[in-house]
Write a structure and sequence with these properties.
By secondary structure, the protein is α/β, with parallel strands linked by helices. Helices cover 45% and strands 17% of the residues. The protein is elongated and about 65 Å long.
Length: 166
């Protein structure tokens, strides 16, 4: 992208932010370089409000982030952080790759580290619908394998407005 700007070629990114954009703009002020995307911090903040509405006092909160190196995951996490602080809520954060399978795999790791007795009330917050759905599947599988009923309180928040689920 920097090579394109150097050659005088304007470019734009849709639905993605690139941290180097301000620097490229300074280096090549006569070339149009831009990004158009959703406000990821606001999405995280909205998920934080959903969490505040749904959270019970004894919840185990599982926060499933996208890849740590992506701006989307980072900004959504920044957005939800203030709500977590105001609720004095601790949650475990795990990282997936936006896929349903990564949500399932990551949630299995989380579940393996917690005694089932503590899992009476679960709130899963996925940074996207696919990972949230995968995490739900892992919870269902885990409890079915042990012949136990799902936790009485199982709430799941996803994001992205998938037409198939969400």
């Amino acid at each position: 992208l920097r090579a394109a700007a150097r050659a005088g070629i304007s470019w734009g990114l849709l639905t993605r932010w690139l941290d180097e954009i301000p620097e490229i703009r300074r280096e090549y002020p006569d070339v149009d370089v831009f990004s158009a995307s959703a406000n990821q911090r606001e999405i995280g903040r909205l998920q934080g409000h959903q969490l505040a509405t749904l959270k019970a006092a004894d919840d185990e909160v599982f926060y499933l982030s996208g890849p740590a190196g992506t701006s989307t995951a980072r900004h959504r996490a920044e957005g939800i952080q203030s709500e977590l602080e105001s609720l004095r809520t601790r949650c475990q954060t795990f990282y997936g790759d936006w896929s349903q399978e990564s949500g399932r795999t990551t949630a299995r790791r989380w579940l393996a580290g917690l005694p089932k007795a503590r899992l009476l009330s679960i709130l899963i917050v996925g940074q996207n619908d696919s990972m949230a759905l995968g995490a739900r599947e892992a919870v269902e599988e885990s409890f079915a394998t042990e012949g136990k009923a799902l936790p009485k309180e199982l709430r799941i928040i996803g994001c992205d407005g998938s037409t198939a689920f969400g």
